[in-house]
Amino acid sequence: MANRALGAPQLPGPQPVAKQEVAGETRVATEALIKTGGSEVADGIFRYAMLACGLCVLALVGLIVYQLATHSHLSWQAFGLKFFFQSAWDPVNDEYGALPFVYGTIVSSILALIIAVPLAIGVAVFITEMCPVWLRGPLSFTTELLAAIPSVIYGLWAIFVLVPLLRNYVQPFLVRYFGWTTLFEGPPFGIGMLAAGIILAIMIVPIISAITREVMTAVPQQQREAVLALGATRWEMIRTGVLRNARAGIMGGIILGLGRALGETMAVTMVIGNRPEIAKSLFAPGYTMASVIANEFSEATGDLYLSSLVEVGLALFIVTIIVNIIAQFLVWTVTRGTPARANG
Amino acid sequence: MASSTALTNDFAAAPISLRRRLMDWTATGAAVAAVVLVLAPLGAIFGYLVYKGIGAVNWNFLTQIPKPPGEVGGGMANAIAGSAYILMIASVIGVPIGIGAGIYLAEYGRNRFGDVIRFTADVLNGVPSIVIGIVAYGIVVLRQGHFSALAGGVALAIMMIPTITRATEEMLLLVPNVVREAAYGLGVSRWRTTLSITLRTATSGVITGVMLAFARVAGETAPLLFTAFGNTYWNWKINEPTAALSLQVFTYATSPYDDWHRQAWAGALMLIVLIVLSVTAVRIAARRGMKGA
Predict the structure, then answer these.
(1) Rounded to a whole number, what is the distance in Å from the CA of A3 to chain B's nearest CA?
(2) Which of A27, A29, A334, B105 has CB atoms 3.0–4.6 Å from B169's, for a disulfide?
(3) Domain that holds residue A242
(4) Tens of pLDDT along A240-280?
């Protein structure tokens, strides 16, 4: 089963294969039977054709790296590492710095996590531990439906429903009661970092809650029974028996959600305001790495301009890859069959 | 779990302090509140889509091409066709490669090298769609010298492949080895066994995987922005810029015109309806095919 490990976290399907592993002698017999099939040439061709498809997957990732690296070469030569610490984004004078985008991406994603994580864990806890069995299926289906809505539709909804709601009700409220934090200053346009964070949160809740549910289900039933037998209430059982055992996997789900939030493009582009500025207030417009590419790529005229945009893409690619690998590893530690800490 | 609830009742004989009981109630309340807060936007989004979209979908919307900016009327006929066209190109490229790679992983790839491909597929799955757009721009648009339906199709195909690969593998692994051995025993060659027996048995699962991938890319906008690019007229040439429903929704939603806003809602509704329709159609067709077999 170990050789399926890396893929295992994503697809929770049953894993009956290992038990059907052909025993030594049978394997020999099977091999012999295959040989008498008599079409070794056709078998060889088929095998290599399928191998070619498999290699395509490798080639695609190679191609992505190659494309991003070669096309961002110019910008890398011109600015070096300074590119990510400079805040001037001035196509007229051919001066490019990605700091505002990096800032916007990080702040909007963190904001999304702050909102989404408690909700997602709450939903997962309710579905796996609290809700009646008949409600479990429909409820998980419905939350997963959120993941199937295209990004552009989230954006559309955000522009015409969420933003006016924020402008007329939420933002005045925040200014009045939380104005002292200086996080909520400036005119309440509705559009801006806060709107982007909220729409991102709605989009990543299904991912985090799906993974959380999966790792919570992987916690052995005896853990629950043992804690309950000690006289714990249901919540104490969930906290000490389930959440604590599943925490590495839940962390993995959260990081997977982060990966999605970092790379999310359309919905954010439609509500964040698209201005390359660094402002402390969450009401202020911002810009993210993905949305600057979306907005400016097809209009980028100069070679250096285009190259800078590709370099933003390269950075985004590297960060999301690292984030995804960490997340998969964490989920795998929980779902591989044994709880993270046997004595938890 | 049902059994754990039963256990709570049996074992909670010892008195539980009010503080702990309150904590328990609070936690339950918080979980219910979280469910409500998560379902509210879902309801709101679907509600608005239907409420705003239905009124705007009419004959003109379905049969006409867009009017110049600011003029009232026109429709998204070319965008609907364009989306179908781009998705067809993407499926033609992506589905065979994805299924092939899945077959390789399930039937030949139970080794180190298979692990590398599996891992790479998962990496590819996590690449942001906008980055895929840049890559498709590099390999198709730059080479051709202009935006095209083909470039959009390639971008979406790249996004479909890892999903299809992993789903196909998972489904083929569910087919018991006994079935394969039975075929070998009858003298059926290995490739024939894989295609006509193993893949055939797993058909409905594989199709579900393909549809998942299809639904995932059908609403994608970011990778089409600078590949398919959009077009206000009809286009059936693979080498020309092509309109797409998602692109049109984006353009109209961010425009200053009321009539375009109205059409953006209609377009979004169409997008959802088209995704749901195509997924169910293929599912039903697959089930019929399975029965006939």
Answers:
(1) 6
(2) B105
(3) 83-335
(4) 999 998 999 999 999 999 999 999 999 999 999 999 989 88
- The one-letter amino acid code at A330 reads L
Q: CB distance B215–A60 less than 8 Å?
A: no
Question: Do residues A192 and A104 make contact, with C-beta atoms less than 8 angstroms apart?
Answer: no
Residue type, A308: S
Domain residue limits, chain B: 81-244
- Look at chain A and report how many structural domains it folds into: 2
- Residue A174 structure tokens: 């925040």
For residue B103, list chain A residues with Cβ-Cβ distance below 8 A: 50, 53
**What value of ipTM does the predicted structure carry?**
0.89
The minimal CB distance from A155 to the residues B104, B169, B253 is found for B253
- Over residues A165-217, the pLDDT tens digits come to 999 999 999 988 988 888 888 888 899 999 999 999 999 999 999 999 999 99
Torsion of CA A261, A266, A267, A268, to 10 degrees: 60
Helix (H, G, I), strand (E, B) or coil at B242: strand
Q: Which helix (H) or strand (E) holds A90?
A: strand A89-90
Is residue B292 predicted with pLDDT exceeding 50? no
Residue A22 is classified by DSSP as P
Are B133 and A297 inside 8 Å of each other by CB?
yes
Residue of A51, A136, A156 to mutate, testing the B interface (most B Cβ within 10 Å of its Cβ) = A156
Q: What does the pLDDT look like over B116-144, one tens digit per residue? A: 999 999 999 999 999 999 999 999 999 99
Residue A174 shares a structural domain with residue A77: no
The strand pair at A95-96 and A89-90 is best described as antiparallel
Nearest-Å Rg of the Cα atoms of chain A is 25
Question: Looking at CA atoms only, how far is residue A93 from chain B in angstroms?
Answer: 24
Residues 63-92 of B with CB under 8 A from A: none
- Shared domain for A243 and A319, answered yes or no, is yes
In chain B, DSSP assigns E strands to none
Structure tokens at A114: 């702050």
Are the C-beta atoms of B219 and B246 separated by less than 8 Å?
Answer: yes
If one compares A90 and A336, the residue with the highest pLDDT of the two is: A90
Decide: A123 and A143 in contact? Cβ < 8 Å: yes
Q: What is the mean pLDDT of residues A74-101?
A: 92
Determine the average pLDDT of the residues in A207-234.
Answer: 91
Pick the CATH number of B81-244 from 1.10.3720.10, 2.30.29.30, 3.30.465.10, 3.40.50.720: 1.10.3720.10
Average pLDDT over residues A30-49: 75
How close A186 gets to chain B, by Cα (Å)? Answer: 23
Q: Which residues 125-184 in chain B show a CB within 8 A of chain A? A: 125-135, 137-139, 147, 158, 161-162, 165-167, 169-170, 173-174, 176-178, 181, 184
Residue A59 shares a structural domain with residue A202: no
State yes or no: pLDDT of A9 exceeds 50.
Answer: no
CA nearest to B231, candidates B258, B202, B205, B251 = B251
Return the pLDDT at B68.
Answer: 87
d(CA B213, CA B221) in angstroms, rounded, equals 15
A61 touches B: beta carbon within 8 Å: yes
Q: Which residues contact B191 (CB under 8 A, 6 or more apart)?
A: A39, A42, A43, A45, A46, A47
Task: Give the DSSP H/E element, type plus range, for residue A89.
Answer: strand A89-90
Q: Is the pLDDT of residue A342 over 50?
A: no
Chain A 65-124, residues with CB within 8 Å of chain B CB atoms: 67-68, 70-71, 118-123
Check A43 against B272: CB less than 8 A apart. Answer: no
